[in-house]
Protein: TrmH family RNA methyltransferase
Amino acid sequence: MTDDFRKPGARKVGQVKEVTSLANPIIKYIKALSNKKDREAAGIFMAEGLKLVIDALELGWEIRTLIYAKAAKGKPLVEQVATRTVANGGLVLEVSEKVLSSVTRRDNPQMVVGIFEQRWKRLEDLAPESDETIVALDRVRDPGNLGTIIRTADAAGASAVILVGDCTDPFSLETVRATMGSVFALPVVKCSVDEFLGWQKRSGVNVVATHLAGAVDYRTADYKSKPVVILMGNEQSGLPDNLAKAANRTVRIPQQGLADSLNLAVATAVMLFEARRHLLTLEDRT
Ligand code: SAM
Structure:
């Protein structure tokens, strides 16, 4: 965790660049962050909203650029965030609403946008203890699902999200929006199926896989004796055989009604809150 950027005596904003033209090269560069390739190449991503930007800074994330609407100029918190950005060697842009709409692709954009450095945790660095829960997602494709899962995993007290195989990008605008800030709180790992299976053997975790053909009721699995990895399948095709067979348990959430299956994010939430039921209390939050 870094020092509190709101501490008294922080430097005044040194330099703010005013931008009103959509043709400005910095704006073009930032707009290109909507492409995964450009995001990956630059190693940065965009988060919208003053609260998210403040939360990220307080959690020690590196801000590269702060963009705010002219109407936000002079607001104390915006000025403090701008001061912190400049102190870190970042750029501060004061822009028209038209520019902000174009950057965020929204008609009613947030007043503040931050461009942050991406952060990935390495699979080798995940060494969960027995009361920890990790979510592993096989080829998750939908950005809204991924964002909702990151947010839910954070709320349930999970330690990380592992993206196995070709997954949607956790740093896309849509995913970051759906995380509601939890992308800054929860480490994200990406790996291949083989890397995941190798780590599963080495790390002594209990992998509880979910499958529509699972014979075991998810409420009867053991979530207490070892660190748990909840393994979820792809939205269209479900979990492939090699991942399902390597799991310690394959469970199913009982259903009634016409629906074939639950939405991936909903199923993940049901699993997470069951796996961590013995660890969650109302007193966790004051
Ligand atoms: N057609 C896919 C299939 O045959 O598996 C449906 C996939 S479902 C939309 C996405 C994922 O959510 C599944 O792979 C599984 O991980 C989880 N899931 C959804 N409903 C479930 C249930 N009733 N029991 C266990 N897992 C479930």
